[in-house]
Amino acid sequence: MPGGAGAFRARVANQTGRRACADRASVVNHARPRLVVIGNGMAGMRAVEELLQLAPGLYDISVFGAEPYGNYNRILLSMLLSGEKIIDEIMLHTPAWYAEHGVALHAGDPVVAIDRRRRRVHSRKGIELAYDRLLIATGSQPVMLPLPGNDLPGVIGFRGIDDVQQMLQAASAYRRAVVIGGGLLGIEAANGLSRRGMQVTLIHRSDVLLEQQLNADAAGLLSQHLQARGLSLRLKANTQALHGGERVEWVELADGSRIEAELVVMAVGVRPDIALAKSCGLYCERGIVVDDTLQTYDPHIYAVGECVQHRRLTFGLVAPVWEQARVCASHLARVGHRRYRSVRTATKLKVTGIDLYSAGDVIGGAGTEDLVLRDPRRGIYKRLVLKDNQVIGAVLYGDVRDGGWYFELIEQGADIAGIRDRLLFGRQYCQAHAAQLEATA
């Protein structure tokens, strides 16, 4: 990112300084029902987008967001950190968009209380607003391990633009960083900090990275690749405590070893942000419990995104959140015919130069069999998990071109008996072989 942290802050200010225009541009027409959206992130604003397409002008819409800027693509934060994207490139809805669509944006002013009896929300800055329908999209909060020293300056999560700004400031002033957590977010954070010139150690409690998405072989290739980039890996390691004075200085592991670091990033997962919903008496378990229409136990209140729990599941990937937004918007638009159903999703790692794709059941078990292709010279590994002549899982490393096709086969439950021997060579090869058979028949 050209210009470093100072230029980064300037770009954010440029995006946020005009947000008041969205408030001024929203003309309140009390003849229309009022929709209040709590949360200016990807889930809530995707629902607003869908609603505006289905029923433009149906509601007076007001959006409250905790962060002081427009809606941005949180998925691309790792590329913002690494310098592959700038702030303008990850913005989804600028303040001008809200003004253009008549949506009142209250950025940097989160809702702190919901009065369900009077149907009103109260913001931190003292705004009180009535609603006919309320959409809660408060997202999730990063899990911060309850370790001694976790409140030291320099110990942060990785969830928003402010976190990226702190990492950029640290990278410009210090040399050593520790990232705790070997999942997708941890690997992306470690890679970004390394690209910024820091010496990075990645700590993970399992003996393989991405253990939920990869088998041991693919995880081993990923580890080799990351180490070749200069990252240090401490696998099967548990963090015991963080130490320092005015700032974090070193990390103590359970085996007694220590790793010096002036920046510690915790990327060990997220939990649904349900504090506001619980405070107003909405029924919550791990998340805000919703039905198939994304309605809560209060018929005037809906919820979408990482804060919700649907049929015992919570969500952390974008595909199910997009579907939730579509379903919710259709019911808010009064054309409700959709019902939300959880769907399988695929995983792609957003690290430049590392091609990795994972979908379905990648571990397998009783009654399953594996098709495996290894090409160490080219750094390619493919593993397909089969059961009853169907693909139920796929792990691709180095060559992910056919990931989407394998995912389709998984979703469709397709019978692959006729192409089993050629399946690892991809869609194009299988189709060419089928065409050749037809031509000679």
TrEMBL record:
Q: Which Gene3D superfamilies match?
A: 3.30.390.30, FAD/NAD(P)-binding domain
The UniProt transmembrane annotation reads none
| Similarity comment: family membership | Belongs to the FAD-dependent oxidoreductase family.
Name of this chain's protein = NAD(P)/FAD-dependent oxidoreductase
Which organism does this sequence originate in? Dyella acidiphila
Identify which cofactors the protein needs according to its UniProt entry. Answer: FAD
- Signal peptide limits: none
Provide the alphabetized UniProt keywords: FAD, Flavoprotein
Q: Which residues form the FAD/NAD(P)-binding domain?
A: 34-314
Q: Does the keyword Flavoprotein apply?
A: yes
InterPro entries cross-referenced by the UniProt entry:
FAD-bd_OxRdtase, FAD/NAD-bd_sf, FAD/NAD-binding_dom, FAD/NAD-linked_Rdtase_dimer_sf, Rubredoxin_C
Do the record's keywords include Membrane? no
Cite the NADH-rubredoxin oxidoreductase C-terminal domain residue spans from the record. Answer: 346-413
